[in-house]
Design a protein that fits this description.
Layout (H helix, E strand, L loop, with lengths): L3 H24 L31 H11 L4 H7 L1 E3 L2 H5 L8 H4 L10 H6 L5 E3 L4 H14 L7 E4 L12 H7 L2 H15 L6 E2 L23 H16 L10 E7 L18 H8 L1 H8 L4 E4 L3 E2 L2 E2 L4 H11 L5 E4 L6 H5 L5 H11 L4 E2 L4 H10 L5 H17 L21 H11 L1 E5 L17 E5 L25 H12 L2 E5 L12 H10 L2 E7 L20 H9 L5 E6 L7 H6 L2 E4 L7 H9 L72 E8 L3 E3 H4 L8 E9 L5 E12 L9 E10 L4 E8 L1 H4 L1 E2 L5 E2 L4 E7 L7 E7 L1
Parallel strand pairs: 1-2, 1-10, 2-3, 3-4, 4-5, 5-6, 6-9, 12-13, 12-14, 14-15, 15-16, 18-26
Antiparallel strand pairs: 7-8, 11-16, 17-19, 19-22, 20-21, 20-25, 23-24, 25-26
The chain binds beta-D-glucopyranose.
Length: 807
């Protein structure tokens, strides 16, 4: 995270949690697991699959690595595996040691002097140390003063923009537009490399099916197919075709693995699942990122089936390196090595270090363990030097591939503000990310949106209508606030242009009890033709350590909403949030609802474009919106049950014929707004779904290289009176397989723009990747089974066709 104060607050929270957990771990030393079973790493571990990143496998780089490694002392080698921020450096300077920022920063207490480490070759990489002056100062120490002149690699959490901020990743996923994601990712790399950053801790590709989990905001939501498409798009944007280009950065796909399955949606909680589910649902986006060449991977905080991910050789060695051929480096998440003690699988720092490095964690982010423990562990033979050498090689390969030895310093003119030329791109992204959830007609018979020309007086109400900071979401804190266009700014500009009137009342705060502002807000609503309500969460209510047990509008915003709705004026509810919220009341009482996530620097302009109808909304939900929090985890591609409710009316309590079926007695099973759903200002219809052949022989289908086995087509038509874009989606079900398969799974999507009355035939090619599933031996297979394919505008698509794989 880039903003110093937000960083400190976050780190302080993390620190508190860690120390409480440490006490618990010390009190319960009886119950730690024997992790040895999971450690099988040897320096000569064979890489079976083809190397995932060809550039890292280059013989020229290997020769340079060999030559350098041959000159390194043990301390210099270990230095390459050590990562710090610069808080400890500042704390090590006595005059600064007691400043509030440092007091709030746990790492200040380590008093690790990063500058001194840089000068002595003891610091391989730094995190969240950004800015040309800062990075160049540390880099000069490493390059000019250290014995071997090895440059430092600067990594940072550039998650959805560096200075020009675009929507949070969950919002980007709602665009279903990988090409645009690639452009945005590249744009952020261009900006951040001017500040010396050559490594992004992004993309986060954790599948999240539980809206209580705050980090849902950082990923692409609940679906593995969409998640994999997004993962590839980010990697292409960050790394380009050539890591050595100075405007490209190394990606770090995170958090490996299954972090998003945290039990009960509670942050950092344990995860436990079958290997089939792991491979089928949680791993595909990471695999896609690795196959796209991600140069690095971040190991997660969570335990998976009892083994913490940052000491998990099954994940890091067997799957990542052996099966997928990953040849980049693995960095631990923040203090994840130290947290192995809290997990109860290591009794002390030495054991935690040994477990992490032998399981495959190359770089220790902030634990202060590799530098303090590894020298003795190697000297005593508890960690073979070959293990250290392998890790150092991986770090050096990335540095050589990035061309850091040739261009160690920040490039060009430093970007410190939003870049004017980048604004159109982030505005387009924000527009594409909005999901229109409801747009009912008002008294005049027309839908509320787009705002009618007759709506001369608009009341803009709510705590998110004019809050520049909140427009940036959980990871946009590095931007310059005056660069952000709020909704109030944009609507004021429109009012001036059109001669309309904008009445603004904040109404309440995001999370407050005081109703002092309600009267003014109700007054404004009464005087207006239409009300635009900007309600929702703060950026920090999602993101790391942002789990919630309630998914309603925070504070007294629901009450404000009810009072405004009671005026009888047409209401457009804009929901700003980093996750699905429960909008059940709103759906019954408010004419129009649009989910707008956290849109970024161009928030206001993009919202105005869509509200006024310059652009028709095209976003589709990447996560299901529940009717009640008790439905979580909720996702469309569920598994079948032996007692489905069939056609029972689940909105009523069970009767004698609808009791003993899989259902809740107090809420329907379905999402209020399902995955893939989103309205437009026009209407699209679907017809004539057809497959290119009714049968595919198994011998053709069950081959990993089979790509175009069958083609599914459908006609999509714009039945309305506006040009608009639709995200056409293709879903599949596989019946009769040896393992239960989901009731529906996304297998393709494409954005189609159609003029009024225009229609188009869309095509999806399905091959082994789409038809196969993972069996209990961890292998993807196709069996002779029956398939149904649907094409439509959401996961509720009805138009379908069928085919079979024959024995
Ligand atoms: C987060 C990571 C992040 C890292 C570095 C951790 O707390 O889990 O997502 O990249 O900090 O800031």
């Amino acid at each position: 995270m880039l903003h110093p104060m937000r960083h400190s607050a976050r780190e302080q929270r993390t620190r508190r949690l860690v120390s409480v957990a440490a006490v618990i771990a010390i009190l319960s030393t009886g119950c730690f697991a024997q992790g040895r079973l999971h450690e099988r790493r040897a320096s000569s571990a064979p890489i079976r699959a083809r190397a995932s990143n060809a550039q890292l496998a280059s013989p020229a780089i290997e020769r340079r690595v060999d030559a350098l490694l041959g000159k390194m002392t043990l301390e210099e080698k270990i230095g390459q595996l050590v990562q710090y921020n610069d808080a400890g450096y500042a704390a090590a300077t006595p005059a600064d040691a007691n400043t509030p920022a440092l007091a709030a920063n746990p790492e200040a207490h380590l008093r690790v002097d990063a500058m001194q480490l840089a000068e002595t070759g003891g610091l391989g990489s730094m995190l969240n140390t950004v800015g040309a002056a800062r990075t160049n100062a540390f880099q000069r120490a490493a390059v000019e003063k250290s014995r071997l002149h090895i440059p430092i690699l600067f990594g940072a959490d550039v998650i959805h923009g560096y200075r020009t901020i675009y929507p949070v990743p969950l919002g980007l996923a709602a665009m279903f537009d990988p090409g645009l994601v690639t452009s945005l990712a590249h744009m952020s790399a261009e900006e951040a490399t001017t500040a010396g950053v050559r490594w992004f801790y992004s993309p986060m590709v954790d599948i999240s099916r539980d809206a209580r989990w705050g980090r849902s905001v950082e990923g692409a939501g609940e679906d593995p197919y969409l998640g994999a498409a997004m993962a590839r798009a980010y990697i292409r944007g960050y790394q380009g075709d050539d890591l050595s280009q100075p405007e490209n950065v190394a990606a770090s796909v995170k958090h490996f693995a299954a972090y998003g399955a945290a039990e009960a949606g509670r942050e950092y909680n344990t995860t436990d699942m079958s290997e089939v589910r792991l491979r089928q649902v949680y791993l595909p986006p990471y695999k896609a990122a690795v196959e796209a060449g991600s140069a690095t991977v971040m190991s997660a905080f969570n335990a998976l089936n009892g083994v913490p991910a940052s000491a998990n050789a099954f994940l890091l060695e067997k799957i990542l390196r052996d099966e997928w051929g990953f040849n980049g480096l693995v960095v631990s998440d923040y203090t994840a090595v130290k947290e192995l003690i809290n997990h109860g699988i290591a009794l002390n720092a030495a054991e935690a270090t040994r477990k992490a490095i032998t399981a495959g964690v190359d770089v220790d982010m902030m634990s202060h363990f590799y530098d303090t423990q590894l020298p003795e562990l190697v000297r005593s033979g508890q960690v073979p030097i070959g293990v250290v050498d392998d890790a150092v090689r991986r770090v050096l390969r990335v540095k050589f591939a990035l061309g850091l030895f040739e261009h160690p310093y920040a490039r060009g003119v430093e970007v410190t503000r939003a870049v004017p030329e980048h604004r159109p791109l982030v505005r387009q992204a924000a527009e594409e990310s909005f999901v229109l959830l409801q747009n009912n007609p008002t008294d005049n018979g027309s839908p509320v949106l787009p705002l009618s020309k007759q709506a001369k007086t608009i009341a803009l109400i709510g705590p998110l209508a004019d809050d520049a900071n909140e427009m940036q979401g959980a990871w946009g804190g590095g931007s310059h606030l005056p660069d952000v266009v709020t909704l109030k700014d944009a609507l004021q500009t429109r009012a001036k242009q059109t001669g309309g009137t904008l009445l603004y009342a904040k109404g309440t705060e995001i999370d407050a009890a005081s109703e002092d502002g309600f009267a003014e807000a109700v007054q404004a609503a009464r005087r207006a033709d239409v009300v635009v309500l900007a309600l929702g969460e703060s950026g920090m209510m999602s993101g790391e350590a942002g789990s919630r047990a309630h998914l309603d509008l925070p504070g007294n915003q629901q009450k404000l909403l009810e009072e405004i709705a009671a005026t009888g004026k047409p209401v457009v509810l804009l929901v700003f949030s980093g996750r699905p919220l429960v909008l059940t009341w709103a759906a019954q009482h408010v004419a129009a609802i649009m989910e707008v996530w956290f849109p970024g620097t161009e928030a206001g302009n993009a919202l105005a474009d869509v509200l006024y109808g310059d652009v028709s909304p095209s976003g589709k939900l990447p996560m299901s919106f529940p009717r009640a929090v008790g439905q979580e985890p909720l996702y469309y591609n569920q598994f079948p049950t032996g007692r489905p409710p069939f056609n029972a009316d689940l909105s009523r309590p069970p009767g004698p014929d609808s009791r003993f079926v899989s259902r809740y007695i107090d809420v329907p099973n379905s999402a209020l707004f399902p995955f893939g759903f989103g309205l437009s200002y026009t209407h699209f219809s679907y017809a004539d779904v057809a497959v290119s052949r009714p049968e595919v022989p198994l011998r053709e289908a069950d081959r990993a290289s089979a790509h175009d086995l069958i083609t599914v087509t459908a006609t999509v038509k714009n039945d309305g009176s506006r040009t608009a874009t639709e995200v056409v989606q293709c879903y599949m079900r596989n019946l009769g397989a040896s393992l239960e398969q989901p009731v529906r799974s996304l297998k393709g999507f494409t954005r189609v723009t159609l003029k009024p009355g225009e229609s188009k035939r869309v095509t999806f090619d399905l091959g082994f990747p789409e038809l196969s599933f993972y069996n209990t031996s961890g292998k993807p297979v196709v069996e002779p089974t029956h398939y149904t394919v649907w094409i439509g505008g959401s996961s509720l698509a009805t138009e379908h066709a069928e085919f079979k794989v024959t024995p």
